[in-house]
Structure formats: C-alpha cells, structure tokens
Amino acid sequence: MDILLIGGLWLNGSVWGRVASALEPLGHRPMPLTLPGQGDGSASATLDDQLATVLAAVDAAPGKPMVVGHSAACTLAWLAADRRPERLAKVALIGGFPTADGQPYADFFEVRDDVMPFPGWGAFEGPDADDLDDGARRAWEAAAIPVPAGVAKGVVRLADERRFGVPVVVVCPEFTPAQAQEWINAGDVPELARAEHVDFADIDSGHWPMVTQPAELARILAAAANAA
C-alpha cells in the first residue's frame, strides 16, 4: 500500500527517512511529503497550498493510500479524508488530533515576520521531549523550518460527512490510548467522536517517534495498513 507521510510543524519530508526505510521491507511504499512552506523555500505558503500537495499525492496513488499525519498535520490528514473520502484506505494520526471546522490550523505559538519559528524546548518539557538527548535536540533545532503564518493561521474547513466513514488509527506516543479515548469520550476531539472506526496503537516515545523509534513506528503503520 502507498503510505503518505506528513510531518508536523517545522518538519520537511526528510524526517521520515528511517521510517520509510523500515516500511519498504514490510511490503509498503512510503511517500514522505515535503509541504509548501516547510521545505520548498516558500514563506508565503498557505494551508490551502499544503492541502493541495497532500491531495495531489492522494490522487496520484494507484490504489487507495493510507495518509499519515503527525502532530498538527493530523488535521491535514483528516482534511484529506474530508476531500477524498472515497480514495483513502485509512488515516493514521500520530501524536495529535484533527482540528474542528472553523478553527485555526495551528495557531499555537508566536508569529514573527510572517512565520512561526520553533519556540524552543521549554514549550515541550516533559513527556514530549524526554527521549531526545542533547545531540538530537540540537540537530532537530538546526533543521527546524519556520512555518508560514498563512499555514499556522489558516482556517480549517470540513464539509463532507463521509469522512467519518474513513477508518482511523490513533498512534499514541506521549499519551496513552486510554487517555486518547477519554478525551474523545469527553468531547474534546469532536471529529473522532463521530468517526465510525477508531483504533489505537501505543508507542513508547515522546512526541517525535519518527526520530526516536522509527522501526517501531514503521511496524505500527505497516500493521495499520495491513488491517485496512
């Protein structure tokens, strides 16, 4: 199966390198995506531009792909389910949940000079980053790409209720499946509360398992794809 890999804020497609290498021997075709404004040199990219890149990859897949979103990009993966519900085999959400209709995509941190730079590790103290040593943190910061304001502040628009029929797997790194289910049951994740098929997979990592647990993440994604 084609597996489209979408990194979260500040990341380009190269972050999936070791996951992709581990997925191929498991019988799948990984396709890491570099998004407009996050690796192509464009500081004026918008959320619509990023979604267009994802949809182009979905449309180019020979069969039904699984779309994987990490962190904020969980919303991009879910937007793909909204725009192409009949074309997707499954959506995998790593370390995040879809933003609701009408809400900003990722207006989480300060925007300066029309971009949202990486805010530093203070914003991720605790389980998010405990598994990243100093070297990994320095490498991560050096590669971080400021996110265009047009992406971070873009408004999410969801319209096709067929998205709720697309199977979902929530990969839980810095939180547990039980916590994720609790948040969904409490109404904190309204999109997944209405989804018809939601599974959970636990992974012992911080917020960036593609960096610290790439082989295990690949195994989880392959299992999810095989079950689609």
Automatic annotation (TrEMBL):
Domain AB hydrolase-1: start-end pairs: 3-219
Keyword entries, A-Z: Hydrolase
A GO molecular-function annotation: hydrolase activity
Gene3D superfamilies: alpha/beta hydrolase
Domain of life: Bacteria
Stored Pfam families: Abhydrolase_6
InterPro entries per the UniProt record, alphabetical: AB_hydrolase_1, AB_hydrolase_fold
Official protein name in the record: Alpha/beta hydrolase
Species: Streptomyces hirsutus
